[in-house]
Amino acid sequence: VGSMTIERHEFSVGTKVKCRQPGGQFRFEGHVSACNLDGTYDVKYIDGDTESKVDSSRVEAASLYGSLRL
Question: Could you tell me if residue 58 is left (phi over 0), alpha (psi between -120 and 50 degrees) or otherwise beta?
């Protein structure tokens, strides 16, 4: 029987974040729409685009207060 590791998340659903594009320097604002069991995030960007399985290394708080949900 296999085992599964559940990763902890720095951000929760609804947190405003900025995500760096893969291999790039530009960051795009959005919010976390899901926290996945593998430690990645699903993100909905302010322009309406979505991205699934975003590695946590590409995600940062959108501002000093970005990790707070209002």
Answer: alpha
Which pair of tokens denotes residue 37? 């069991």
pLDDT digits (tens, 9 = 90+) for 12-31: 999 999 999 888 888 999 99
* Rounded-to-integer distance, Cα 2 and Cα 25, Å: 38
Q: How many angstroms separate the CA atoms of 28 and 62, rounded?
A: 9
DSSP label of 6: P
Beta strands in the chain (DSSP E): 16-20, 27-35, 41-45, 50-54, 59-61
Residue whose token pair is 């979505």: 50
Tell me what the pLDDT averaged over the chain comes to. Answer: 84
| Region at 6 (left for phi over 0; alpha for psi -120 to 50; beta for the rest) | beta
Using alpha carbons, select from 39, 31, 1 the residue that is nearest to residue 15.
Answer: 31
